[in-house]
Specification:
alpha/beta; seven-stranded parallel sheet
């Protein structure tokens, strides 16, 4: 079997930046092609400019570089999506279709990132199950439901090996967030270290599912490396790390930075957050391919502060 040749769309984003590094360490940098609208200032891996809406350019890159696997991370996230719904729909749906068609044509394996935004507010907020009616309240969530179903359709009808995770909020020190409702949980660390104060755009008690970046990347690699027969969910797997509120993460930070202060000024993202789960049931991911998170709130907070203190 020929070695994998991997293309990453949206490689400059919060997850893409870290995932690209992890994949290059595993497979070698010569096996990775990162793509985005423009190169990152710190880009060290092979790069090609790509607008995900340019289907011809994408297919040319796949053929030219002998791509076998695509990690499709290009997307407009929740908060930015509400500011420009038409663009969010176009990028998130047409862009995904532009990936699936060459995947069908050339027999590629594909990763699609879904999200807790697919659930909406008509589900149990605690321990949200894998299989519930999906009634999202944002264009981002709607597009991700459509993306899950389209991926399952391509698997069922064309045999495309589509694999997907419903990411919770992702927290990491390696890259900045990109316009999501859970971004406060990254911003708060930067402000705590730089200014010892932060004004949060969600209310103090708003609990949401979160995951440390190291766990998110590990889950992605585990899913993509699992035997095909183990992948029983072809829409998207629930995965969980931890759940906490702004006041809880502030208290965790204050154990390391006692003078840190937080205030609250909820904006339009509060309504989005209230439509999402407070915690996730990821039993099927645990059973099918052995998923287990390694970081809780305390371990994540300690690691974030340690790494951000070094680079400050």
């Amino acid at each position: 079997m020929a070695p994998e040749k991997i293309l990453i769309t949206g490689a400059n984003g919060q997850i893409g930046t870290v995932l690209a590094k992890a994949l290059s360490e595993k497979h070698g940098s010569d096996r990775i092609l990162t793509t985005d609208l423009r190169p990152a200032t710190h880009a060290l891996l092979p790069f090609a400019a790509l607008d995900i809406l340019d289907a011809d350019r994408l297919e040319w890159l796949i053929r030219e570089h002998g791509i076998t696997t695509i990690y499709h991370l290009a997307a407009i996230l929740s908060a930015k999506g509400e500011q420009d719904p038409a663009l969010a729909w176009q990028v998130n749906m047409d862009g995904w279709f532009n990936v699936l068609e060459p995947a069908r044509k050339y027999g590629l394996k594909v990763f699609f990132p879904s999200t807790i935004a697919v659930f909406g507010d008509h589900i149990p907020r605690e321990g949200t199950p894998q299989h519930v009616p999906l009634q999202p309240t944002t264009v981002y969530g709607i597009s991700k439901v459509g993306g899950e179903l389209l991926g399952a359709y391509y698997h069922a009808n064309y045999g495309v090996d589509v694999r997907s995770l419903r990411y919770p909020g992702i927290i990491g020190y390696e890259s900045l967030p990109g316009g999501g409702t859970t971004d406060y949980a990254v911003e708060i660390f930067h402000h705590a270290l730089a200014e010892q104060r932060y004004t949060c755009f969600l209310s103090a008690e708003t609990r949401l599912p979160m995951m440390y970046m190291a766990d998110a990347v590990r889950a992605t690699l585990m899913l993509m490396e699992a035997p095909s027969e183990n992948i029983r969910v072809r829409t998207a797997y629930n995965i969980a790390g931890m759940s906490f509120s702004p006041e809880e993460i502030a208290a965790a930070i204050q154990k390391h930075i006692p003078d840190f202060q937080i205030t609250y000024s909820p904006d339009f993202r509060q309504k989005i957050a209230e439509s999402w789960p407070a915690s996730i049931d990821d039993t099927e991911a645990r059973q099918d391919w052995g998923w287990r998170p390694m970081y809780d709130l305390e371990a994540m907070t300690e690691d974030m502060i340690k790494h951000l203190s070094i680079t400050a």
